[in-house]
């Protein structure tokens, strides 16, 4: 007896923008993200070490967190090698020209997440060729210095 199973996948649209610059307007798509969902790492609690007593006492009432690190693995396509490099340079320059914390927005269907952050790092373009298509990958790293914990 053969059983067949039909699984329906709803394709959701995810939109990324930084300082109102839409990634898709530059031909940039995000393949993978890290640090967007979840709580950043908690900072070490205050420790009180008393002489002539075992161990130490910690204050767990004040919950504070480290800065949030967001990494986006990006893909960019070009019609030719020169077009790919031009698009990459234009996009990364628009990211690097921002000299203060701005809003990184990630919208998934009707849900939107916002982070007040800055660009920490942009890796070099790793150029690839597949079936005559010029594309490259790179990673954008954002830091949210004062994360909002909901």
What key attributes describe this structure?
150 residues, mainly beta, eight-stranded antiparallel β-sheet, two-stranded antiparallel sheet, 1 helix, 45% strand
Based on secondary structure, the structural category is: mainly beta
C-alpha geometry: elongated
Distance between the termini: 51 Å
> How many separate helices?
1
Task: Provide the gyration radius in Å.
Answer: 21 Å
* Helix content range: 10-25%
Instruction: Please describe the biggest sheet, giving its number of strands, its sense, and whether it closes into a barrel.
Output: 8 strands, antiparallel
pLDDT under 50 segments (min length 5)? 1-5
The helix/strand order is: EEEEEEHEEEE
- Mean of residue pLDDT values: 88
Number of strands: 10
Task: Compile the SSE list and pairings.
Layout: E1 14-18, E2 21-22, E3 28-34, E4 46-48, E5 57-59, E6 68-78, H1 81-96, E7 102-108, E8 111-122, E9 126-130, E10 133-144
Describe what this molecule looks like in 3D.
By secondary structure, the chain is mainly beta. The protein is 11% helix and 45% strand. The chain has one helix at 81-96, and strands spanning 14-18, 21-22, 28-34, 46-48, 57-59, 68-78, 102-108, 111-122, 126-130, 133-144. The strands form two sheets. Strands 1, 2, 3, 6, 7, 8, 9 and 10 form an eight-stranded antiparallel sheet that branches. The chain has a two-stranded antiparallel sheet with strand order 4-5. A hairpin with a 2-residue loop joins strand 9 and strand 10. The longest helix is centred in the middle third of the chain and has 16 residues, at 81-96.
């Amino acid at each position: 007896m053969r059983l067949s199973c039909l699984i329906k996948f709803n394709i959701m649209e995810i939109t990324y923008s930084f300082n109102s610059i839409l990634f898709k307007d530059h031909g940039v798509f995000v393949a993978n993200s890290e640090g967007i969902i979840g709580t950043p790492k908690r900072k070490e609690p205050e420790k009180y070490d008393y002489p002539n007593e075992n161990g130490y006492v910690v204050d767990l009432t004040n919950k504070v967190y480290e800065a949030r690190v967001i990494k986006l693995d990006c893909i960019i396509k070009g019609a030719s090698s020169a077009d790919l490099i031009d698009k990459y340079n234009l996009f990364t320059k628009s990211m690097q020209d921002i000299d203060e914390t701005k809003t990184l927005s990630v919208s998934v269907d009707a849900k939107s997440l916002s982070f007040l952050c800055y660009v920490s790092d942009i890796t070099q373009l790793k150029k690839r060729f597949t079936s005559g298509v010029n594309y490259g990958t790179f990673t954008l790293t954002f830091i949210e210095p004062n994360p909002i914990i909901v």
